[in-house]
């Protein structure tokens, strides 16, 4: 065996010092040095395993693992593997020849492409991420090859390196980082553990730190679904989200053409404040954690789901931390959307009763998807359910059939009535039920947007809130009730209530309603209702205040109390009665509060 001598040389780059360049371009994410070096160690270990399976390595594999050691006194962090190792020639090939021709050229080329995000990854610079935190790096390595001579390499971040023979009994590589003074946070055991658990939690080779294996090398997403039970999926969910309640169900993703994608997506129980629900889907590449910012891959509504996606075919920029958009990304997003829609359709078809029970928890997700993604809507329209005040569920087609007979207007449009708060709007719901009209419950934060979407997508359907007008005007039929009041009496009432409303924008109508209906009804135009609901959903301040400027006062000309007003001889008495009925209408809309409510109660008590 030929014995090598110590050799000194210059790294093949056109720059005086790689150290400040690495620092500059990765300043925002120094912790990824450990991800890169551990990932390289795992790759080296996987390679020797593969060579053994092919018969090209016939030695003892031993216990394959990667070890991270901290020496606070020496101020070093060492990443060790018993993988494939390197010869002196391989070090010269893979380490000394840095994979770009010049730092200044690189900076110029990538300055407008997120260059400052990092220069690791596709440029063969994973090893050089070490110089984000180290003032000097040593490599001790021994190749798996027979008669291979152990080699030590050293470089202090300048272009000068040293390579020489060393003593190393075991196959593999040790990378020793001498931590720089400005990076001593990485000399804390807790900090290193946190990084290892973040990026290496599911690496395929055991990762040992402080004499404990910190990872699960065989997570459920790499296993065959046929070999897994519900308990396995639930246990993995707890591993990902220790403090969350159990998910409702899940989807196991597994595709290898036209791209490679595996993963498990879980449907959590969604609370009404869906902005807070984003526990974040985690993106991996060959079991290395990349990011939990997956908005460039996964459509927005799918980000309400939890779980893991793993794909080596998602293009990352050079730091492996930020996604790059391309055709594959769009295909992956479309595939996941389709798989989720198919899963929901299957659950609905196979167990409708169970699906209805879960819909309170997943309805928000389904509606969000139907609104925001046309392809999802095409499938979701068959399993997106509508619930009425009786607690019954209907698909869109089923509901259209249910209300066809009784809720079709004179111009052949169906009116779907809904309540956004069955308690507050109970009087209006009751009025609709008297007419045998069905009322839907649409009270989630997203329903104001969902309603708009329904009207755009469903032919000849209008969706109206049950308190948006008098019930006869909500569903206008050919036959309208007869108005029993003279024109003179109608004008008198109109003038009286216009004064009580004390608002020039208020519209007062005398309506021929049933004597069983309320004497006075205050309603707001549907478009104002929707704007108010949308503002409430988005958390914006209500531009209308407590009482929108535009509203309608519908006086029931056929109600005995209205006739009592007309019969009163004293104008003051008429005004008092009108004010009382007007306040009663405000109360039924939830618009009477504070001193106005107190005054109303006192007036009511005084008349008893």
From TrEMBL:
Signal peptide: none
Domain Histidine kinase/HSP90-like ATPase: 29-169
Keyword terms: ATP-binding, Chaperone, Nucleotide-binding
Keyword Chaperone applies: yes
SMART domains hit by this protein: HATPase_c
Family: Belongs to the heat shock protein 90 family.
UniProt xrefs under PANTHER family: HEAT SHOCK PROTEIN 90 FAMILY MEMBER (PTHR11528)
Protein name (record): Molecular chaperone HtpG
Native source species: Ravibacter arvi
Lineage of source species: Bacteria, Pseudomonadati, Bacteroidota, Cytophagia, Cytophagales
């Amino acid at each position: 065996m030929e014995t090598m001598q110590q050799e000194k040389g210059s790294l093949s780059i056109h720059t005086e010092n790689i150290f400040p360049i690495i620092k500059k371009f990765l300043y925002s994410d120094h912790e990824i040095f450990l991800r890169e070096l551990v990932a390289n160690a795992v790759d080296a270990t996987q390679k020797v395993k593969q060579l053994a399976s092919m018969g090209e390595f016939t030695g003892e594999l031993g216990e394959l693992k990667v070890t991270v050691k901290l020496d606070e006194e020496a101020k070093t962090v060492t990443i060790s593997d018993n993988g494939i190792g390197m010869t002196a020639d391989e070090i010269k090939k893979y380490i000394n020849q840095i994979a770009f021709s010049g730092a200044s050229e690189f900076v110029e080329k990538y300055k407008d492409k997120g260059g400052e995000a990092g220069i690791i990854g596709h440029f063969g610079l994973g090893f050089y991420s070490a110089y984000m935190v180290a003032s000097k790096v040593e490599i001790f390595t021994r190749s798996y090859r027979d008669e291979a001579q152990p080699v030590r390499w050293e470089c202090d971040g300048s272009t000068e390196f040293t390579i020489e023979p060393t003593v190393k009994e075991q196959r593999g590589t040790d990378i020793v980082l001498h931590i720089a003074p400005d990076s001593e946070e990485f000399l804390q055991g807790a900090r290193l553990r946190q990084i290892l658990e973040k990026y290496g939690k599911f690496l395929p080779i055991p990762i040992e730190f402080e004499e404990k294996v910190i990872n699960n090398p065989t997570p459920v997403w790499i296993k065959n679904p046929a070999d897994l039970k519900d308990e396995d999926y639930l246990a993995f969910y707890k591993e990902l989200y220790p403090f969350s309640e159990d998910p409702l169900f899940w989807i196991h993703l597994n595709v290898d053409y036209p791209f490679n994608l595996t993963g498990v997506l879980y449907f959590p129980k969604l609370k009404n404040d869906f902005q807070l629900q984003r526990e974040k889907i985690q993106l991996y590449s060959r079991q290395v954690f990349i990011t939990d910012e997956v908005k460039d891959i996964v459509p927005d509504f799918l980000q309400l789901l939890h779980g893991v996606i793993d794909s080596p075919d998602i293009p990352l920029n050079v730091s492996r931390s930020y996604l790059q958009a391309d055709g594959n990304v769009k295909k992956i997003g479309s595939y996941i959307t389709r798989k989720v829609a198919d899963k929901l359709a299957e659950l609905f078809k196979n167990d409708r009763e169970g699906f209805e029970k879960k819909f309170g928890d997943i309805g928000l997700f389904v509606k969000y998807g139907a609104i925001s993604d046309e392809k999802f809507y095409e499938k979701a329209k068959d399993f997106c359910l509508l619930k009425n005040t009786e607690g019954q569920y209907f698909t869109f087609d089923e509901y259209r059939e249910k209300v066809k007979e009784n809720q079709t207007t004179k111009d052949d449009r169906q009116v779907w009535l809904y309540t956004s708060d069955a308690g507050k709007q109970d009087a209006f719901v009751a009025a609709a039920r008297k007419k045998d009209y069905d009322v839907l419950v649409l009270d989630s934060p997203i329903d104001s947007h969902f309603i708009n979407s329904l009207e755009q997508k469903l032919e000849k359907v209008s969706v109206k809130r049950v308190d948006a007008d008098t019930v006869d005007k909500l569903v206008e039929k050919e036959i309208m009730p007869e108005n029993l009041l003279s024109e003179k009496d109608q004008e008198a009432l109109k003038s009286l209530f216009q004064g009580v409303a004390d608002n020039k924008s208020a519209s007062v109508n005398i309506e021929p309603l049933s004597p069983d209906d309320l004497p006075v009804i205050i309603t707001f135009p549907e478009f104002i209702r929707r704007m108010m609901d949308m503002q409430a959903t988005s958390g914006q301040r209500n531009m209308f205040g407590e009482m929108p400027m535009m509203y309608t006062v519908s006086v029931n000309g056929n109600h005995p109390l209205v006739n009592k007003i007309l019969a009163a001889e004293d104008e003051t008495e008429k005004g008092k009665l009108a004010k009382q009925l007007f306040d009663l209408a405000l109360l039924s809309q939830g618009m009477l509060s504070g001193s106005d409510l107190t005054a109303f109660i006192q007036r009511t008590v005084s008349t008893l």
